[in-house]
User: Fold this.
Amino acid sequence: MHTLIKPYAVLVSIYLLLATLPAAAASRALTDFTAVNGGAETVAEGLRLTPDDSGKIYLTLDVDGFDLGQHTLVHIDAQSQLPLQYFLLWKTAQHGDQLFQFSVGAAAGAGASGDPLVVDMAGQPRWEGDATMVGLGVFAPGRRDVLLREFAFHRPGLLYDAQLLLEQWAGFLPWKPADSNFYTGTSGYREGVPPVPLFAGVLGLVGTAYLLFLLLRGRLRAFDWRVVGGLAFFLWLCLDLLWLHRLGARAVDTMDNRVGKSIEERLLATEDAPVVELVAQVRPLIENDDARVFIASDSDFYGMLGSYYLTPLNTYWRRLGPELPRARFVRAGDYLLLVRPTRVAYDAQRQVVTFPKGVEVPVETLHISPVGGLLRVL
Amino acid sequence: MLLSLLSALAITCLPVWFVLHRLLPDEPAGRRSLVLGYSILLGFICITLVMRLHSLLGIPFSMTAIALSVLPLFALGLLLPGRRSVAVARATPVSAPTRPAKLLLLLCALLIAAHATMLAVEVLYTPVSPWDSKQHWAKQAKVFLAHRELVPHVANVWWLALWGEGVYTNFHPDYPVTLPLIQTWMGVALGGWHDVYVNLPWLLCFGAIGLIFFGQLRVAGVGVVVATAATYMLLSLPLLNAQVALAGYADPFMAAAFLGAFAAFSNWTRTGRAWQGVLAVLCASCCVLLKQEGVFWAIAFLPGLLVLRIGALRGYAILGAALIAMVLLLVLLPDTTSFAGHTIREMRFFYRPAGWMPFFEGLFVHDNWHLLSYLLVAALAWAAVAARRDRLDLAPAITVLAGGTFLLLLLYLFTSYSVAAVQHTSSNRLAMHFVPSWLFLLAVLFSQMQRPVALRAGPGPRD
Assistant:
């Protein structure tokens, strides 16, 4: 049994090494950087940057013995309400005080809020030699604050690729509705390298090698299913550890965002929030518990939410069809809940809603907000 | 609130637990796990049946009324013969687990606990989130809770025609009401609708799946190490985990019901124990109560019974003829003929090859089921070869799974539901109904692979 365990122990060690090795980077802690323009405040997620009057922030760091030619992959992970523009700044020992700058413009995909960026500086002019200073410039339109989560330099190679792969397979991804339907094992549908075929390939190769080994030694009868089963279990375990890491990060995120909060607060922190708020505002205005409420929205999602959160009122919502039924199905005392976006023709001045076939029905406006409104049929 | 929930849990599980405790003989392996697992599953279904009865009799839903109504189950349990020992012939002596085996058992237990803990966090803190839950399941539950009875739900067009008098509407008014009633029951226990705690049954369902799976594997003669490892593999499946974390779909309950039926059926065909047959019938009936396709999944057991009765060769010949007859029926019957709530016209029968790739992706490329599909293919290949060399008594069970899988493929490759496969919106969820049973079969096959040839027929030694 011990001879069976040894190779697995080696594989486990390699796996743990890859998982725990620090990023192959000359990255420094963000707190080591100095804000030359604007302000920088350390927060739990990284650095909160405050632009100066011209909307710019510059972070710089004096370094020594940092070979730019070897660290050509620059990771920038920042978030703001509006798209950002970045500038890489550096000085080298070979060029003294001369400051070099590289603009990571819109063409490089910079700035979509929350999207991490990888800038490949290989072949860029002057990105060579021993750096004496490296820095990051950020232009934030509207002088909005920026949350900088990562600014690091990586060395391309097998280890970097392996760590990227690990991040794809096990990095944190918040829950999304589609997770109920499928799980790819990567960071998104048709993104990255799916791990399952790889692991299955390893299983197939090692299993075949084991079989061939016995065949060549004339000891096919010694074939032990436990060897193959053990290998399959080990690979399953590896896949599961990737999933468990992601599941654990999600559980931590859930606890961070929901523990100690009321149900209403939790609902208001989800994508349902606009409709939850709207329903909380309009529900007291519906006097009769037996009232009929017609939900009208051009968005299937918001229409469905309106119907759900108003239940147990008797609601009508039609998915994939006209937002409202014919006017002859509506009577005085009914309510119309409009949830934006909506194509329902509502004339606030004349207090009428136009139903299909152009029939105008008089209504009373009970509530209007940017999210929607409640009307009562007269 | 905690006391109410514990009371509801006790009302749900204890009566059924007592009946099963009296029904099952004193098997040495897996008994406690079996009784607890089936108690949870059958307990929830039983409560919904009681609630349907109450609604029929005009009794508003309440903890007291429902608790009193399940008391007769205790009387039923007392009528059963009670525990009795069954002599089990041991083919080989049982040995204590080795140290590496104990380490493996500990590792699996820890990993199962890790999964369960993380899922518990999600279930205990996340409000109802899935689309289908808000669109019909939980929406219906809120209505039932508010009225304290079943309220008819009709299609939009009928709701308009009836002016909404005494009826409600949602996107799937013809779906079974079992799942909404489970959430309604939670609401009754809590004294009102709670957008988070109504999902607690999903966590219990997760536990029930693991318990039933482990218990039935042990009864099937699978050793404790392999059974535990297989149970961990089952409970680690990402899509099953996601379905529990984002609680609200009926699919985990369907997976539990089909597993409960399949595992019991498989063991019944190999041992002839009547209580396994009873469990199989009960759980197959649960499939019908949970989702519309449950009718077809329950029908999938008939080919297995046929093969058991008349043997594999003749059985498959008859099934082949039945398949041809089914095709002819589909061609000859009027378009308005309805199967499980859907007419032939709605299903629009013709071959849709576009459904293959998403299925392949879901099974062999995506990480929904880790390596299960690959391992199952290898195990079935071995089973096909081994069947020629020695008798394998899994033919009826394999037939059931093959039949269910065939019906699943039929749905997504020959009907209008193929769009759901292409968009990956429901094909994996429906595949999940069979996944625990596939893994059960895999574990039993693996256990047989390890045994000497002469011992392969029938359940082997328990350790």
Remarks:
- Confidence is low (pLDDT under 50) at residues 88-93, 454-458 of chain B.
